[in-house]
Amino acid sequence: WDVYDYSDRLFSINNPDNDLITVTSPNGCEVWSKNETYTITWDDSYAGSVVISLWDGGTKISDIDYGGSSGSISWTISSSIPTGDNYFIVVARTQYTWVYDASNQSFSIE
Fold this sequence. Notes:
Blueprint: E1 21-25, E2 31-32, E3 37-44, E4 49-56, E5 59-68, E6 72-76, E7 84-93, E8 100-102, E9 107-109
Parallel strand pairs: 2-9
Antiparallel strand pairs: 1-3, 3-6, 4-5, 4-7, 7-8, 7-9
């Protein structure tokens, strides 16, 4: 049995995978201090909303910010975040969460 249908109208297919995101800072080996403010930066070809998250290894700790794709945010590291050396920043599209990037290597919070 062959089952098929034809579209009643013209349509287009968008490829969100062409919207690239690249985290540029922190990108590995930085040492950041609690209660200090740092700039998280990324490059992208996407003009929509993104979410910036903090990860400890493979565990998501928290979302840092939601918003437009400006390419940077300022982040003050809370004193409640545990000291560690396996942190990563992930920037992802909010609509297509498979379009994302993470720090290339871990950074430290002390």
